[in-house]
Amino acid sequence: MNNIDVGCELQYEVKSPTTMLFNLSVASTEYQTVVSESLWLTPYIMAEQLEVGATLNRVQRVYAEPGLFNIQYIANVNLGAEIHCPESLVEKPYSCIPAEVLPYLNPSRYCQSDLLGNFAMSEFGGEEHGYRRVQAICDWTYQHLAYVSGSTDSETTARDVLVQRQGVCRDFAHLGISLCRGLGIPARYVSGYAIDLEPPDFHGFFEAYLGERWYLFDATRLARVEGLIRIATGVDASEVPFATLIGTTELKLKSVWARLSNSSQSLVVPAKESAVSTA
Amino acid sequence: MNNIDVGCELQYEVKSPTTMLFNLSVASTEYQTVVSESLWLTPYIMAEQLEVGATLNRVQRVYAEPGLFNIQYIANVNLGAEIHCPESLVEKPYSCIPAEVLPYLNPSRYCQSDLLGNFAMSEFGGEEHGYRRVQAICDWTYQHLAYVSGSTDSETTARDVLVQRQGVCRDFAHLGISLCRGLGIPARYVSGYAIDLEPPDFHGFFEAYLGERWYLFDATRLARVEGLIRIATGVDASEVPFATLIGTTELKLKSVWARLSNSSQSLVVPAKESAVSTA
Amino acid sequence: MNNIDVGCELQYEVKSPTTMLFNLSVASTEYQTVVSESLWLTPYIMAEQLEVGATLNRVQRVYAEPGLFNIQYIANVNLGAEIHCPESLVEKPYSCIPAEVLPYLNPSRYCQSDLLGNFAMSEFGGEEHGYRRVQAICDWTYQHLAYVSGSTDSETTARDVLVQRQGVCRDFAHLGISLCRGLGIPARYVSGYAIDLEPPDFHGFFEAYLGERWYLFDATRLARVEGLIRIATGVDASEVPFATLIGTTELKLKSVWARLSNSSQSLVVPAKESAVSTA
Amino acid sequence: MNNIDVGCELQYEVKSPTTMLFNLSVASTEYQTVVSESLWLTPYIMAEQLEVGATLNRVQRVYAEPGLFNIQYIANVNLGAEIHCPESLVEKPYSCIPAEVLPYLNPSRYCQSDLLGNFAMSEFGGEEHGYRRVQAICDWTYQHLAYVSGSTDSETTARDVLVQRQGVCRDFAHLGISLCRGLGIPARYVSGYAIDLEPPDFHGFFEAYLGERWYLFDATRLARVEGLIRIATGVDASEVPFATLIGTTELKLKSVWARLSNSSQSLVVPAKESAVSTA
Fold it and tell me: How far apart are CA B221 and CA B236, in angstroms?
């Protein structure tokens, strides 16, 4: 069990009246407990609390007048180790995938799993099914993509990335998701905070449905899954932007952090885990 | 109020054990009441009933062994006229769109509204907002796309269609959805049956969120919105395939129909409607 | 007849041994006479003179060692007015297009005229054939594309531009070329200098084959065709880059200019021309 | 030295007056001598002989009135073995590539070598340079693409094929060309006849510039390079279609053949060749 402090601060120069949606607050899940959290808006505006999408992502909607606008969020989170015996995790046959999981097999804006199905089958069709196959996808992604800041933009899809062989964290996640879906493994995108991310920023990773639940993966190897704190969950990044701004604004400041609550602590990693990170 | 008989029959030669998902049953909504319905599977297999996605689309899952497999569905549906005073329907400002509607502003697999935003704004930015603007999108789509059977496939997106200027019903719907989203109007895909469709087949159309609810549109002009019977609702066609087949099969027979229950009847169209179909 | 001074200066920090190809020297054609020209390389390296491609574009190849590298080019050019009676210019029937012109009907890297054929025919199929039809393409392009610096990159094609509705000079030219080819009018890309371009830079425009020869067009309306000085000609921009650098370099300085030789002069425009620029 | 009979017959129902360009006649090159050839047009129409493109491809242009139209071509060709000591063939440094070869480094309609450069470098950057590196590209292509008739169409590019992992001969060639160019090796498309092709058809392959000249490669392994008879050469298939038809026609019959002139003969393969086809 890890206890983690996360937070961010964003400052905008608002140039025209702007509706803003923020998706920065950490989620409450079976493995992630929000101990405490605070949100400051300056100047103070009443924020509407929304729960958006199938996973009820926590969104704050505000309407800002021209001028400086600042949003700061901090939270303290208890994070359970999610993985215990990965070797035993199996892929669910299509006939047994729960109804609420089926949508995560469909192709989506950035994850055209239909187009990548042949590639997925030829590259990973022969792998041992289960957790190890998803790990093999992450390993392949890590080995074949270069992490290059600024190499992609908001139009870049998993298909583009498979060709151009470079991207950032969301691109790594999109490719992992697409390859899983192409093999019949439900997969989805997770936005969040991450301990030890260098340089510090929001992070994007993914999870795959194995056995009876979802398991986190990060093909970038920039952060350990034990240090990933979930904000929101969606079919891909198109569903979970950190900020959506309808109006004219300019980002003036952005700061994001995540650290163990007690600096003398170190990240608790389940004993079994070392056995599977073979790559 | 129209009373309509719909149905379909599909026959497959199943060549390997196959998991099948069917999404053929009509939906129950405020405007659409299922009076009666029946489903026959031959040979008889127990079908699992699933409710899939945000709109709880009704999916039957079966596992078929090799051999001939036949599914037949019939239903009698009461359909309320959905539109009353379209002139008064306004677009909801972004700050007031309900949380459950927000996801239908995101780009999706076939509706890259992010890529088509500039086009949507330059072509329709100056139109009067509201129902008439969505109607203008339908008119433009009808006037600029040719309906050509076989001109597109399962990879074709709204962006492709905007360039190649031809497609089938799902492509018309995808383009309409993308242009609406590009203007900030939530829009989504509807699969269904349609009266007077020639040749008879399943149909794809779309709906846009105006005022306080969703309104149907069909840019193909192949069927009147008063004769559209909803099966399923999704971000685009990727979420609502009529049949998903995991295994090796060959479609041997397909028959789809929709007609007024009493053949002496004719389709009831709200009096006001004629005023808006100006194109 | 206009007498024009053009030139440019490029300075690179060469970080690894680099082969450089420059395509900056003005072409000699029936309508464009090079009165004088000079090229300085600092440090002095022997440049190999190459004639590349079907139109024998003038390319200088040098091999630069690490350090500062500077290239400066100036020329004085006599430019004939190319257009006389545009109303009488006809499109050549396919059966009469000369062999050396046929390649300019093929699709190319940035000009996928095959994909844009339907669009071209539906939008311009009904226009009066000839010079006016190409002018109509330029007018449409000017009216429907926004000129936005930095909105496109070296991967952007005419198809992308048709959807996103913005681009820079080369994108305007690529769209014009694609639409011409889609109608059966041979068209090709021209790189060059341009008088009155603001801010001063290299320019990209296009030419179409009408009557018995090629005629220049510039859909950006940023420069008059009477002030366009040709450097190179190709199927699209992929064939005529100003600089190709095989090695690691950083551009430190770029300066480009074009002006009438005698500043008291003004640009000579053929009397007839005013009649055609109706848009 | 192989002596080969090739030929083809095409029959069209011409429905509207149609300009036709045929590019079926074998080329004369240093390694390929046309001993005899004949062309029959029925009904007899005078065919205009054109030489098109940088390699002067032999094109016949005819103008056909409505009715049946038949073209038959036969030739007897002497084919020299083109490869002698492939191990010694080196890649030309960029600074030494001849001017007339430089255009074959540019990206083209179907070969977006700019987009595939990263992939090419990461997969083949470490291979021994020269003939073996191009052979490694062919081996990779053969191993990673499935040859599936009908899996691609006239819009399919090398980039599409790299993702979907299937295609036909022209797609294999386009991918090979793109990967070569991405590594700085000039490469181009060759259309032709091929001995032992099953089923018999026209064929598409490619050649790469190594040492001091062009060498043929066929990544499909459907035919031996010693049995490839060149028709035309271009940047990709967009430049060398077998038939271009401007009008409304329907292909009624197509027959293509290529065989050793004396059936008792077998294909002469240079002794050294066996050493290199290691894959």
Answer: 19
